[in-house]
Design goal:
Structural class: mainly beta
Shape: elongated
Radius of gyration: 30 Å
Helix content: under 10%
Length: about 950
């Protein structure tokens, strides 16, 4: 990766200057290999100032006020990954985020964050603060949020940005709301697009998991640039196809729990929804001995004869192998970047972007259940099976809450559930910029308009219409015309195509997001101080956002058998003004090579909640030219998103443990305090509630009374890049260390369901117990997960980066890059009845929703170049963590990646042939009992198996 670590904002003229200077900066700064991630060094300045990360004032890019990591297209190519999100999620400062290892949709429903599942999308989460607290920009301007067809996300879907247009990505690892506005609490990701390319560049890559012969990936990219200084156009396109990896083809995901070999294992986890059915009827818990494909089963109340027997754990259904481990994704799109220079006073830039994503999630066959203990939360909970139904073996009408509480059936006859997404993203950006003279100095201006649109459609095959089901199991005299009586009781093979044809339907959902963003900026210099000219920047922004989620009409009517949902929509607009100043006070004094103060302020007026003001201040001090020290204080803001404000109520099936169960792992039999609190919460005192671990329903939804989150960031750090380590045995040496402390107040979140269950059972906390709703049998039918302004989040840590490059030797050039994050603190404060509960997650695995918080994460690369050959080895280390909800340690992992590249001189070194293997040592992820799916944490660990790839590239 290049050592050019500035972040451009808006002005195409600034971009031209920055690109022209990139070679000078790289040489003066680190002289790094263009495939190494870089951080700023403390050296002499280049000839011209440009716009740098975290500031809108032009400055020396080597005197950065905030820490930035830059990843260019060469570094992206070296990973062998086809998604920019997967590349960024490997950064030590990243805590993961949604990616294609999440097989969500109908498996879990809509999580309690107001944004929907986001199936098939990918995001970046910095500092463990959630992706919605990381701002994503494209060329310094906002990009339209993603659309998931299951909610209204608060984040940009990185899979909606054409990868062929990315020149580099700059990650600002500090709060920056005064400079960029809402959402920039954890940091800013700025994707810089290709604007000055000349000629053709292209690549074709094929990869797959070696030995397993799955996860096959094709990635084709091309771009072409033409023109001169006055008019220049860059256009390109790409096509990426990633095939699936099935859970059935990995040993870790064969059963709902790690190491499990049978549903009769005491650990549980298998489903009550079985192909033979489970029937809680007449106070009995029974199932079929075997399928009764035609006619009516025989029911003997004594179970001595007939077709029914007592239901046991061995009768439960193993749904695990029917899921995806890696979801299939197809993406294609293109871009055009055009620039016209009319004079020094005015330039015009236009960028057009289109992207299509086709993705799919898959779950086991539909679990269809009726009765109050099922907890559907809709009409199904109250259905009766009439005595005249020709398949009812009990001879009487089954009435919910009277002679039956639940009937469970797995509809294997309908085929597996599939959720297919089609997402179209369009964005059009126009910029006018230029410069003029004022106060005998250069001043720069730009005005920008961004129009973005995201449209997502999802098709779910295999749902059931509850109204039609009610008719099909009701009085047979009313099942006329096209109605076909339904057989709940015959077991696998007893549900005919005609039955499915009557009750089944294809669910079609849709969501949309719109962004209209208009900005104007002015920057320049006022006068000179002893340390240099005083710089200022001022600007205005008007932003309008709209989002909507429209479920299928049958779902809105509450008649679906899968996840319930209602339509939601909302909009807001905001007007903002900002100002920034840079005061270079001293220079060229003993122990003060330079010293400056800087500050910024932004005032925002939102249509949803009113006004807010954020500000930041910092200092940069060079005791001598090789050492830069920095300190920064910043206040940040995150306004509640459309989904968080207006999201309609839905359900999330969380993989969590109920302490009140008498099954294995429950505390009810052994802890008198827990037993008393659970009985008070509605659990039978007899201990008859013995459901094993599994998924519990959490009610989710928005809250129009939410207030904005506020945050405070403290940052102290330094960069040491000595002159003696240049132009000799070493060509570059740089060490950067930064300490950060971020405190978020009024965090928008739901109180975690596991926290509510545990507090209610262990302490009897009234607020927690009130949030839990149980059936008379003790089964949890709902946990309140609606959004609140909860207490807050506090995180502290240390980032460190070391870069070493050798000079030319007889054996070639060598490089070492090491980056790491040491997490000192990550704690969440949630409200209880009389106070707050603080939980520190450092060194733990949270489980559903999945997130590991290792003390240390590291990334290291050694590379070697000799003539046309380049080789590299990358190591990725993740410290061990302890699973909170289970006595299980997820041991540390060290992943190894290797790549070899050959550029034949007889092809003018324009062609490159690359071979690489990720996860060379074939390390499996550590097993996780409380994680949502596939028994591993997809935010943190790799899919099992070696991934190999071949690539042919030209001009890259």
């Amino acid at each position: 990766m290049r050592a050019t670590t500035w972040m451009m904002r808006s002005s195409s003229l600034a971009m031209m200057a920055g690109l022209a200077l990139s070679a000078q900066v790289a040489a003066a700064q680190l002289a790094t290999d263009p495939q190494t991630p870089t951080a700023p060094a403390a050296t002499e300045a280049p000839a011209e100032d440009i716009v740098v990360t975290g500031s809108r004032i032009r400055r020396d890019p080597l005197d950065q006020p905030s820490p930035v990591v830059t990843i260019d297209d060469s570094a992206i190519a070296r990973t062998g990954l086809s998604s920019i999100a997967d590349v960024l999620q490997r950064l030590p400062a990243s805590s993961g985020g949604l990616n294609s290892k999440f097989n969500s949709s109908g498996n879990f429903g809509n999580p309690p964050d107001g944004g929907g599942v986001g199936a098939g999308s990918a995001v970046l989460d910095l500092r463990y603060l959630g992706a919605k607290r990381t701002l994503v920009l494209v060329d310094g301007l906002r990009f339209v949020n993603g659309a998931s067809a299951s909610g209204i996300p608060a984040t940009v879907d990185l899979n909606s940005i054409p990868s062929s247009m990315i020149e580099r990505v700059e990650v600002l690892q500090s709060g920056a709301s005064p400079q960029y506005g809402s959402d920039a609490i954890a940091g800013v990701v700025n994707i810089i697009t290709k604007q000055s390319q000349k000629g053709f560049k292209g690549s074709a890559q094929y990869g797959q998991f070696l030995g397993d012969n799955d996860g096959k990936t094709q990635d084709y990219q091309l771009s072409y640039g033409v023109g001169g200084d006055d008019v220049h156009v860059v256009a390109g396109g790409y096509y990426t196809k990633q095939e699936s990896v099935s859970a059935a083809n990995r040993s870790i995901s064969q059963f709902p729990n790690p190491g499990q070999t049978s549903c009769s294992d005491p650990i549980g986890g298998c489903s009550s929804f079985t192909p033979l059915g489970r029937f809680l009827v007449n106070g009995q818990n029974i199932t079929l001995r075997g399928p009764v494909a035609s006619g009516r089963p025989v029911y003997d109340p004594t179970l001595a004869t007939g077709d029914f027997k007592a239901f046991t754990a061995a009768d439960r259904y193993n749904f695990a192998p029917f899921n995806y481990f890696l979801t299939p994704v197809e993406r294609f799109g293109g871009f055009v970047n055009a620039r016209a220079r009319f004079s020094d006073a005015i330039n015009l830039s236009v960028k057009a972007v289109y992207n299509r994503r086709n993705s799919q999630n898959q779950a086991a066959y539909l679990p269809l259940g009726i009765g109050p203990d099922v907890g559907n939360g809709n009409m199904l909970d109250g259905l009766s099976v009439d005595a005249t139904n020709p398949y009812n073996p009990f001879g009487v009408t089954l009435t919910p809450g009277q002679n039956y509480t639940a009937i469970f059936r797995r509809l294997v006859e309908a085929g597996q559930r599939t959720y297919s997404q089609q997402v179209d993203t369009m964005s059009l950006t126009g910029t006018l910029d230029g410069k003029f003279r004022m106060f005998d100095r250069n001043w720069y201006w730009d005005v920008n308009a961004v129009l973005g649109y995201n449209d997502a459609k999802q098709l779910f095959t295999g749902n059931i219409n509850a109204a039609r089901l009610a008719r099909a199991i009701g009085p047979v005299s009313q099942c006329t015309d096209d109605c076909v009586p339904f057989n709940f009781f015959g077991g696998v093979g007893s549900i005919t195509p005609a039955m499915l044809g009557y009750i089944g339907f294809d669910e079609r959902d849709r969501s949309r997001q719109t962004l209209n963003d208009y900005t104007a900026n002015l920057s320049g210099e006022l006068f000179d101080l002893p340390g240099g000219p005083v710089g200022i920047a001022i600007g205005y922004e008007h932003r309008y956002q709209f989002g909507s989620f429209t479920p299928d009409p049958i779902i809105q009517a509450g008649l679906g058998a899968d996840i319930p949902a209602q339509a939601a929509s909302g909009r807001f607009n905001v007007d903002e003004v900002y100002g920034e100043i840079r005061l270079p006070l001293l220079r060229d004094l003993p122990a003060i090579a330079s010293f400056e103060l800087n500050g910024a302020v932004r005032h925002s007026n939102y249509s949803t909640f009113g006004s807010n003001t954020t500000f930041s201040g910092g200092a940069l001090w060079k005791p001598f030219n090789d050492l830069l020290l920095r300190g920064q204080y910043a206040e940040s803001l995150r306004a509640p998103s459309i989904g968080e404000l207006y999201g309609a109520q839905s359900r999330y099936d969380a993989t969590i443990d109920d302490p009140c169960t008498s099954a294995a792992g429950g505390l009810f039999p052994s802890n008198a305090t827990v037993r008393a609190n659970c009985v008070a919460n509605g659990v039978p005192a007899s201990g008859s509630y013995a459901e094993p671990s599994g998924q519990l329903p959490v009610l989710t939804g928005g809250n129009p009374d939410l207030r904005p989150e506020t945050a405070r960031t403290l940052l102290f750090g330094g960069v040491y890049s000595p002159r003696w380590a240049r132009n000799g045995t070493l060509s570059a040496l740089s060490l950067e260390v930064n300490y950060y402390d971020i405190k978020v107040d009024g965090a928008i979140a739901a109180i975690p369901a596991q926290v509510l269950l545990s507090r209610c059972a262990e302490t009897g906390d009234a607020l927690s117990c009130t949030a839990i709703r149980r059936a008379p049998s003790g089964i949890v039918t709902a946990i309140n997960g609606l959004l609140l302004n909860t207490g807050g989040v506090r995180t502290k840590g240390i980032d460190a980066t070391l870069t070493i490059r050798s000079g030319e030797t007889g054996a070639g050039r060598f490089g070492l890059y090491v980056s790491g994050n040491y997490l000192l603190k990550y704690a969440e404060r949630t409200p209880a009845t009389d106070s707050f509960t603080t939980t520190d997650y450092v060194g733990t695995e949270r489980g559903s929703p999945d997130q590991a918080y290792p003390h240390f994460k590291g990334l290291g690369t050694i590379d070697w170049t000799l003539g046309p050959v380049t080789a590299s080895i990358t190591a990725r280390y993740i410290d061990n963590v302890q699973e909170i909800a289970a006595e299980n340690e997820l041991k540390s992992r060290l992943y190894g990646d290797a790549q070899l590249q050959f550029r034949p001189s007889w092809l003018d070194a324009k062609f490159a042939f690359t071979f690489g293997v990720n996860n060379v040592f074939d390390k499996d992820p550590p097993a996780c009992f409380s994680c949502s799916l596939n028994n591993f944490d997809p935010t943190t660990y790799d899919i099992p198996g070696r991934f190999g790839y071949l690539r042919l590239s030209y001009g890259l």
